[in-house]
Design a protein that fits this description.
about 350 residues, Rossmann fold, 13 helices, binds nicotinamide-adenine-dinucleotide
Length: about 350
């Protein structure tokens, strides 16, 4: 386990158990150079304990990179609570988790993630102030969408020489909390929308409310468009899918869009500009971080502009140095995190 921690440059790994509530959790604190580690708490079933720990480590690392490039005074961390098939008392489980977070004295701040909700965060908040995305603070998804929207403007400017979205053809994969809000913003800006979702009801809503063109899920990635916006699950871009893309740029909300790091070079070779996912989708993190610090919503909106600035800077470096934007983003983040 120490070798895995060293490979990920992880600062600390906490294993937590509380027999009374049935809590079994992992907290990975990746890097606190820029500030306390902030990152969501997953509540999922895992095949085994090792995969839960590996998930926490991998996700904590990516939170450090995201926070650093978003210009936040936060580090990266992540928690995973192992979900049992039958939960006795969900509230007492999250309360027990809150009590443990409190013992860390603020080194780790938790938030919602897959499988958890603002109600769970409210239970945690009964025992610690080191929690965000509670019911009072609200859903970060609309802010993630706003950040992706500004990032699409930066991407259109860099790749197409114009940030006017009127008439731009944007293909959105996934119309969930983020994808639908993004579609609304793009529609308001005059973009033409091509959309798919596994849930036909979401597609129907976009067709009726936003005049979107429905596309079959299996055809979305190969649909001719200006910008492809993956907003469903991660890992959608691999060597095979990239070979068949028919877009000028990829700029969407999904985490871990590249199935492996070398896919960035394939996109580059095909002349497809890629907006590094953890840079363009940082709006939700900016929301939870600043709201936790007591900043007003106006400060969050103002900070979102940094996503556009950061992407523009990354694209300029990438073009000048003939490297992929993904590599440039990683190197910028590592300079901030390690002074390398
Ligand atoms: P969500 O679960 O609300 O929505 C995802 C949608 O994508 C669902 O409607 C699902 O049916 C659809 N989908 C999944 N696979 C698909 C496929 N192959 N083809 C078409 N549709 C598909 O999730 P969300 O909160 O909107 O997040 C979307 C993505 O953005 C996720 O990868 C998430 O990790 C990432 N993200 C979200 C936030 C946030 O604030 N919610 C922040 C950063 C990153």
């Amino acid at each position: 386990m120490f070798a895995a921690m060293e490979a990920a440059r992880l600062e600390a790994l906490h294993l937590v158990q509380d027999p009374a509530s049935g809590l079994r959790a992992v907290i990975a604190i990746h890097n606190t150079r820029m500030g306390p580690a902030l990152g969501g708490c997953r509540y999922l079933q895992y095949g085994d304990e090792r995969s839960a720990i590996e998930d926490a480590i991998r996700l904590a690392r990516s939170m450090s990179y995201k926070a650093a490039l978003a210009g936040l005074e936060q580090g990266g961390g992540k928690a995973v609570i192992l979900r049992e098939p039958h939960v006795q008392n969900r509230a007492s489980l999250f309360e027990a988790f809150g009590r443990f977070i409190e013992t860390l004295g603020g080194r780790y701040i938790t938030a919602t993630d897959s499988g958890t909700s603002s109600i769970d965060m409210d239970c945690i908040a009964r025992h610690t102030q080191h929690v965000t995305s509670t019911s009072e603070q609200g859903d970060p998804s609309p802010l993630t969408a706003m950040g992706v929207f500004t990032g699409i403007r930066a991407t259109a400017m860099a790749r197409l020489g114009n940030d006017d979205l009127d008439g731009l053809r944007v293909a959105i994969q996934g119309l969930g909390s983020v994808g639908f809000a993004l579609a609304e913003a793009l529609h308001a800006a005059g973009a033409e929308l091509l959309v798919s979702d596994l849930d036909g009801g979401r597609v129907q809503l976009a067709v009726e409310q936003l005049g979107a063109h429905p596309v079959a899920c299996e055809a979305l990635l190969t649909t001719p468009c200006d910008i492809l916006a993956p907003c469903g699950l991660g890992g959608v871009l691999d060597m095979q899918t990239v070979a068949h893309l028919r877009c000028a740029a990829v700029a969407g909300a999904a985490n871990n869009q590249l199935a492996s790091p070398d896919v960035a070079e394939s996109l580059e070779a095909r002349g497809i500009l890629y907006a590094p996912d953890y840079v363009i989708n940082a709006g939700g993190l900016i929301h939870v971080a600043l709201r936790h610090l007591g900043e007003p919503p106006s400060a969050v909106t103002a900070h979102l502009a940094r996503i556009r600035q950061r992407l523009t800077e990354i694209y300029a470096h990438a073009q000048a140095d003939k490297r992929s934007p993904a590599r440039v983003a990683d190197q910028l983040a590592e300079r901030l995190l390690y002074g390398a």
